[in-house]
Design a protein that fits this description.
This protein has 156 residues and is mostly beta strands. Helix content is 12%, strand content 44%. It has one domain.
Length: 156
């Protein structure tokens, strides 16, 4: 049993995060709570491009826990996030019908092992819109807190 847990932990940390989903670029952050020891709690703004829909960029904000636990990567970040996705270039509308829907386009861990923030994309063919949903889940219990952003595609 002990070997099984050790093997699981090895696999979790051996796979680089960029291979699992799109990677985000940090745009900036602001501190919102002072910590005497370690970095302050902050709100981070990140951007990532949809890996399957060139021309769409999503901007996501979420809280990141500071302090000593945050500095060494053991803190659990709050489960709230906000997202805004925009068309930043041309979108090939002929390829949108072939997209997997729903499909996870971004994932980032929000605690040491058990919690992650995810962005899932939906294609609404009837309304010709890409819908992006951000939420946080845990292995045992997720959070109903979520946010969506819609990118209309087509005639303007």
């Amino acid at each position: 049993m002990r070997r099984a847990w050790l093997a699981l932990l090895l696999v979790l940390f051996a796979v680089p995060a960029p291979l699992l989903s799109a990677s985000a670029e940090e745009i900036g952050s602001v501190g919102y709570r002072f910590k005497w020891l370690g970095p302050n709690d902050k709100i981070v703004v990140q951007a990532f491009d949809d890996p399957e829909v060139p021309g769409v960029t999503c901007y996501m904000s979420h809280a990141r826990t500071g302090g000593i636990k945050g500095a060494i990567g053991l803190a659990e970040d709050p489960g709230e996030a906000s997202i805004a996705c925009r068309q930043v270039g041309p979108i090939d509308a002929s390829k949108l019908g072939k997209l997997r829907s729903p499909h996870e386009v971004f994932s980032e861990r929000a605690s040491f092992i058990f919690k992650s923030t995810q962005v899932t994309r939906f294609w609404d063919a009837k309304r010709k819109a890409l819908v992006y949903l951000v939420y946080t889940d845990r292995i045992i219990e997720g959070s109903p807190r979520n946010s969506i952003s819609v990118v209309p595609v087509g005639e303007r």
